[in-house]
Amino acid sequence: MPYARSIGWVALFLLGGGGVLLAWSLVLRRQVAARTQTLNQTLLKLQEAHRATEEMSQHLAAILAAIPDMLFELDADGRYLGVFANPSMLLVAPRDSLIGRRVDEVLPLDAARSVHEAIAIALRDGADYGREVCFEINGQLHWFELSTARKAAVADLPHVLMLSRDVTARRESEQALLKAREEAIVHERDKRIRALFDAAPVGLAYVKGNVIESLNQQFVAIFGYQADDIPTLDDWWRRAYPDPAYRQTVVATWEGLIKKALAGDGEVESREYRVRTKSGRDLDMLIGGKVLEDGMIATLTDISQLKSVQAALNEAKEAAEAANMAKSTFLANMSHEIRTPMNAILGYAHLLRRGELTAEQGDRLTKIGTAGEHLLAVIKDILDISKIEAGKMVLEETDFALSAILDHVQSLIANSARAKGLTVSIDYGNVPSILRGDPTRLRQGLLNFANNAVKFTERGTVTIRARLLEESESGLLIRFEVSDTGIGISAQQRAGLFQAFQQVDASTTRKYGGTGLGLAITQRLARMMGGDAGVESQPGLGSTFWFTARLRRGLLAESAETRDQSSPESMIRLHYAGTRILLVEDDSINQEVALALLEDTGLKVDVADNGWQAVAKATETDYALILMDMQMPEMGGIEATQAIRQLPARQWTPIVAMTANAFDEDRERCIAAGMSDFIPKPVDPEVLYQTLARWLSNSSH
Ligand code: ADP
């Protein structure tokens, strides 16, 4: 039974198995059905998604078609992977030809470079916005604004999306706006320039080629010509310069100047022209200008008034000069006319004193002498001040000893000081003993002070002082002063003291005499010498008058003026008695005076009355010296000297002018004519003897 059982078991087993199988198959079928359903659902979902995607794409395409933007997908090399845009927007190339190409194959170099840059920045930073590229398409400039963003990597390859918006229209309107604004500015500027043009105080004309483009208001005001009157330069030439010959020279000059301006910096040199106005008046105009890039601006200044003022001034100046000349001539003549009789007065006084005299006669002669000297000093002062004021005073420049100034002044006031019982002392200070400058003028200034000091001091001391104030490369500044213990001057009286003809008060003149010129002359001389003059004073105690001068150190070893010359007169008597000299003098009184002075020394004197006689006598006789007057009838001293110099062996004969023409110019004229020296009249016997002694010892006789 095991078999049966087995079979039974098998059957059972089979049965059971079949049942199980059946059961499984049922389960499986159910499962499959469930899966299928899921699959179907998934499929459905996929279809939905697909539809949605497509819708999205279409939507996107519709959007992109609707907007003027283009969307590109680009790889890192700038290769077009996708192009989403309205085909009409793709101006550079159609979509299909873009895909697969690189931007640099499609766009101009600059634009391509900018796109590459945008890609690089987007890949690095995630995005790049607001970049603008501009290039020409079909001959028209287009602007594109680019917005670039990194896209999630596809298969590890980085991509970007680039939105490109055509902003040409915006740009163009912006530029139009800008241009309009610029034009408005230019217009405004033009308006302002025009306003300036019109406001200029001179006439202005803007000229282009031959066309006169515009005239400013001043131009119209000056000439009366409106723009219509003179549309071209030719019209201007014709109307402004109606005289053809003058017009020709003006045009030639003008064109020459324009050429010069073009070759140089464009500035047309200003010249004076005489221009006819519309109303027919002639004006003096100063016309110049400037050449510009596109024409030129002519500037026209009316100088008619200036010219007439100038002419009036010139006339006034000429009149003043003529008056001045007349004054100078008058002064010279007056000086000559006074000196000539003075020569006689002083000469006779001198000669008379040599004879036997009573005390009273001697006293009277001294008074004549003093009065004469005073009169002479007054004339000298008047001439000096007028000379300084005419700017004709010329300073000398020679070496001299300081002592020659101070000692000399002291000796000149010694007598009058002694007469009043005053002590005179000298203080050389720290001043170098040899100086260079004008000793005559220094002495004159100091003597003015010293004479006043004696005049205005009743008792006490007069001190003559020199001080070195500074020494620099430019020289020395030296102060000269004279202090006294006299009446002094109050502060109020000091004001204006150095002005010409100024005296402390009128009563001074009555009591002390004087012209009130001394201080004025001294101050002006000091200023000419680079210094000044002034006074310190206490009424009742005394005054210190000072002046300063710029001088130099001198080189003189021993000044001729410091040499002791005991008595030239006796020297002549000793060495030259019997020596023949010639006196040329037309005035009989002066002849007599000079003769007496000369013969006193033992000289043998021939006399000539005029130049002719002088030449004749000098031809015959080889004189040791000739004394020559200047102003004589027939032939004057200058011509006579020139003639004598032409004679054989008379080249070196000393010829000494002795004349009442006492100006420096006269001295110069004498020297220029060949004279050797100069003695002013009235003749100071001391000077005469000194000069004679000097020239006789030089002479070959
Ligand atoms: P004047 O020829 O009249 O002396 P100045 O120009 O030399 O002319 O002097 C002008 C005036 O200054 C004198 O008249 C006098 O009033 C005054 N003055 C000059 N020097 C002195 C002095 N040392 N003391 C007082 N007064 C003086």
What would you note in describing this structure?
This protein has 701 residues and is an alpha+beta fold. Helices cover 51% and strands 24% of the residues. The strands form four sheets. Strands 11, 12, 13, 14, 15, 16 and 17 form a seven-stranded mixed beta sheet that branches. A hairpin with a 4-residue loop joins strand 1 and strand 2. It starts with a helix and ends with a helix. About 1% of the residues have low confidence.
Topology:
Blueprint: H1 2-66, E1 69-75, E2 80-85, H2 95-98, H3 103-106, H4 109-125, E3 127-137, E4 140-154, E5 157-166, H5 168-199, E6 203-208, E7 211-215, H6 217-223, H7 233-240, H8 244-263, E8 267-276, E9 282-292, E10 295-302, H9 304-354, H10 359-389, E11 398-401, H11 402-420, E12 423-427, E13 434-437, H12 439-455, E14 461-472, E15 475-484, H13 491-494, H14 506-512, H15 518-528, E16 533-538, E17 542-553, H16 568-576, E18 580-584, H17 588-599, E19 604-608, H18 611-620, E20 625-628, H19 637-646, E21 655-659, H20 664-672, E22 677-680, H21 685-698
Parallel strand pairs: 12-14, 18-19, 18-20, 20-21, 21-22
Antiparallel strand pairs: 1-2, 1-5, 3-4, 4-5, 6-7, 6-10, 8-9, 9-10, 11-13, 13-17, 14-15, 15-17, 16-17
Helix pairs in contact: 9-10, 9-17, 10-15, 11-12, 12-15, 16-21, 18-19
The chain binds adenosine-5'-diphosphate.
